[in-house]
């Protein structure tokens, strides 16, 4: 597992360049043609920028937009939110569904090598990766009150962002739209979709060609055993024998179990033991520890004038022999974004 200290040197060239191209805030996007660590020009259209949302545009929302590599004028448009809440959209781009990834082997601590992924979702759709909620990734608040985050503000601001972005990019107004995301985003995405649909019915412009939503590893289902256990069986994570025993002894109810039902309780214990070694975000990945001993104690609020320090920025942390992207997804992109914000600000105005 790589530490945040390692990622400080690994991600600075890429993230600084992305922000440099998007230095003009307030509804401004710029095309990024080259990235450090990637040989030659990017084989797809990458735009980064900011859209102001909230009261008086007091939330500046950063996005990465990648056009479909097939037919951007006709292929669907997807708005993608990463989980957390608070994981940068950059993690979704390079570790999940985007066309770029890091080359992990033979990394020597210098400039990381970016590689092109031929099976990206951008082969068939254009994707808006959005840093939401506020203070995620490179999105930020310009006022104290705008820094306050709730699920409802996330819903309203994402909806507002989408309509504003479409006004800035009218060539995508008629494209079919899907709203997608993973993990914690399983909570706001259905509500965002509902709000878009309601606004369409009320005649709010621009009209959005909404088609549906999709969820990956949604926190709304993977933590509820009535859904989790059938899913685990369907994914062959548990045996037929254990699943049938659970169905028989628990009578299909795995959440509110009578403690007097010894056989059901025993089967549930067997289930928990069986899946305890799995990384729930991706069952084919290794389950790894966080780079920081207290990853969720990190501060969410950030400032251009406040100093920021973290236990995760610790030279004594060592790298284990396997690659773990759980740290990238759940901690490091966000953590590095927090640590680098002041550095990037100085870079842009110098």
UniProtKB/TrEMBL annotation:
Residues 1-26 form the signal peptide. InterPro entries: AB_hydrolase_fold (IPR029058), Peptidase_S10 (IPR001563). Pfam families: Peptidase_S10. Keywords: Signal. Belongs to the peptidase S10 family. This is Uncharacterized protein. It comes from Stylosanthes scabra. The lineage of its organism: Eukaryota, Viridiplantae, Streptophyta, Embryophyta, Tracheophyta.
